[in-house]
Amino acid sequence: MSDLFSDPGVISSYGSRKGPAPERLLIPAGVGALVTYFMSQYVTTTSPLGPVLFAVLFLVVAGSGCYREASKAWRLELTAGSLRWRSIFGSGDIPLTELTSIRLQQQPRNSLASPIAVIRSTGRRPVRISARDGLPAFAAELKRAAPQVEVRLPASVS
């Protein structure tokens, strides 16, 4: 079986070649552990509810943060006819004729999080990716290949 991303016809790429950074998944888990630990301290130590509350809250907080990070694409590649993406949960490609926009979804509320960019197309689910330096240049290449794409990104993303 050939790798979806081994095509020599790649015009431009954005993101990591090796996959998502493990620390991007560990940070939500660590924060989740600390938050739920301190929240469980409000329950009396004589009650068996403390450890159960800790476990449940940890799974909810850390799980949602890890899922959010893991569902973002970590690699984009632009070819002559499509935009290819890869995430932990899957990969795919979108024909350039179906792309409609790329823009920032949200600015981070703290310094640990990076902004999230969303790539929208007709008839497909949006692709989310961490917006870092290099994304505006990639978006410019995408705009040259697919002029109908609306690009709403700042000149630099950090």
Query: What is the helix tally?
Result: 3
Q: Note the overall shape.
A: elongated
Mean pLDDT: 78
Assign a percent range to the helix content: 25-40%
| Beta-strand fraction estimate | 25-35%
Radius of gyration from CA coordinates: 19 Å
Could you tell me the CATH topology label of the largest domain: PH-domain like
| Uncertain spans | 1-5
What is the N-to-C order of secondary-structure elements (H for helix, E for strand)? EHHEEEEEEHE
- Strand arrangement, major sheet: 1-2-3-4
Question: How would you describe this structure to a colleague?
Answer:
By secondary structure, this protein is of the alpha+beta class. It folds into two domains: 22-69, no CATH class; 73-152, PH-domain like (Roll), CATH 2.30.29. It contains three helices and eight strands; from the N terminus they run E-H-H-E-E-E-E-E-E-H-E. The protein has helices at 22-40, 49-70, 135-145; strands at residues 10-15, 75-79, 82-87, 90-95, 99-106, 116-121, 127-130, 150-152. The strands form two sheets. It has a four-stranded antiparallel sheet with strand order 1-2-3-4, with helices on one face. A four-stranded mixed sheet has the order 7-6-5-8, with helices on one face. Strand 3 (82-87) and strand 4 form a beta hairpin. Helix 1 (22-40) runs antiparallel to helix 2. The longest helix has 22 residues, at 49-70. The protein is elongated and about 65 Å long. Mean pLDDT is 78; it is low at 1-5.
